[in-house]
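Hey, quick one: can you model this chain's 3D structure?
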Amino acid sequence: MKRTRPLTALAILAAGLALAACGQVRPTYKPAKGSAQSLTLMLDWLPNADHSGLYEALAKGYFRQAALDVRVEVPSNPAEPLQLLAAGKVDAAISYEPNVMLARNAGAPLVSVAAIVQRPLTSIISVGSQHITSPARLRGKTIGTAGIAYQNAYLQTILAHAHVPQRTVHVINVGFNLVPAMLSGHVNATLGGYWNYEAIELRQDGKRPNVIPVNDAGVPTYDELVVVVRKATIVNDSNLIRRFVQALGRGYQAVRSDPVGAARTLVAANPSLSSSYRLQLASIRATLPDYFPAGGHPWGWQSASQWNAFGEWMLRHRLISNPLAVEDASTDELLAGQGI
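Sure thing. Here's the predicted structure for all 340 residues.
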């Protein structure tokens, strides 16, 4: 896949439009007077189905209606978004809950302001011929990972939960070549692929994958994709971020209303995805329930107790060392119907 060029959307608030979450929630933002404010958002990685709501918000003018000029940038590597955000090079970034904790542990004053995907996507994946239908079946197997420290900790937790001695499992770093490593027989299973992407791709290719989401195997649940900003931006310009996250929420509502149209919008904005339209649509449909929180909360809701529990798990596994990295790592104050 080729990197896409940054996209720009100009933006003015249409007064009285309701932002929907699980029900209708009126927006709590106020548009800035005068010309649209600029906001640069960096994706977590290459554009894909998980970003469908963003591209819907761009295409349908939701940012424009919120008086925002939003520029989307694609990172050259997955470590870049939070680094550039902390350095003030971008205004917001899409990242992952574990990465937010790691960045805060290193002293970056970052806060998650909305959850895009409400549960883990990371999974143990194997092709059907391997018959790895439960974590207990990992005994004696070779597992490929992307070499990410917290995902190695996931595996430790999963094996302990399944009473599988770590010494009976061989782990190798295959980088981002998770699917090729499986298909070539180099590994029996992988940890790091997503149930809504790599697993679907394998299913479409007739490989009958076995998929075990990490939160179904003993790892505490967490928000896979989140929107992150600097704490100073919340303090100094909360209205900017409030308008952005609520317009983004409207984009995901549009995805729920018309998944086929959302897939077409995503591919139109990113022509490199045209050959994988079928995969993008299937991924959007599979993930739809997880773009929205349960319990009538507005789009983007983040459970403080869940964040604390996952942070405690990271502390226990020595992935982070500072308890302050967990405290106030997320906020729901900028979501529709929340805050002042």
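One thing worth noting: The longest strand covers residues 110-117.
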